[in-house]
Amino acid sequence: MNQADNQPRVDLVASCALPTPWGVFQMHGFEEHGGREHVALALGDISSGDAPLARVHSECLTGDALFSLRCDCGFQLEAALEAIAAEGRGVLLYLRQEGRGIGLINKIRAYKLQDGGADTVEANEQLGFPADMRDFRIAREMLALLGVDAVRIMTNNPRKIATLEQAGIRVAERVPLQVGRNPYNDHYLDTKRAKLGHLFGA
Q: Which one of the listed residues 64, 72, 119, 132 is annotated catalytic?
């Protein structure tokens, strides 16, 4: 089986306008072969000109919708949309891979282990999972369907850059997205830097 056979497949199935506090985005719905659904929020003409500002964001129900302070996800989501709106052009991919790919219920189990003293990596491993199970290759397929082959990526995670580049997306620039640090997620962010290689400051 060659690499193309392993590449995730996705179809662009529906689009509409989505008014937000930061502007009116175009929301594009994608269906992955296998059933998962993903969305992209685009603003302005992203298929021509210089590489647009972009964010590849993995679903985090607790942070994105329930205002959890245990992570920085919700803060990053809002900051990314605000930055795209300020530029007037860009795209946010929202990928349905909760809890670094382990799912919502297992994420709750991992949080319980963290309550007992485990860090975010140890908790996943104690449940029998790798530290990070996410697959960012689907982002390449989504961007291709939107006519985007290069991005200025908003991330602190070098794995995203490596994965996008391996999939054929040119990363023209990394734009740091350091927001939302608070007493509840200090240890979490420090662990992401120490064990997962995330880039926070100098």
A: 132
Could you report the per-residue pLDDT of 151-182, keeping only the tens digit for each?
A: 999 998 887 888 888 878 899 999 988 887 88
Q: Are 19 and 4 in contact (CB under 8 A)?
A: no
Side-chain half-sphere exposure of 21, counting CA atoms within 13 A? 7
- At residue 165, what is the residue type? E
Distance in angstroms (rounded) separating the CA atoms of residues 133 and 98: 10
* Dihedral, CA of residue 55, residue 56, residue 59 and residue 60, to nearest 10: -60
The 10 Å CB-count burial string (b at 16+, else e) for 125-143 is: eebebebbebebbbbbbbb
Catalytic residue among 64, 119, 134, 137: 134
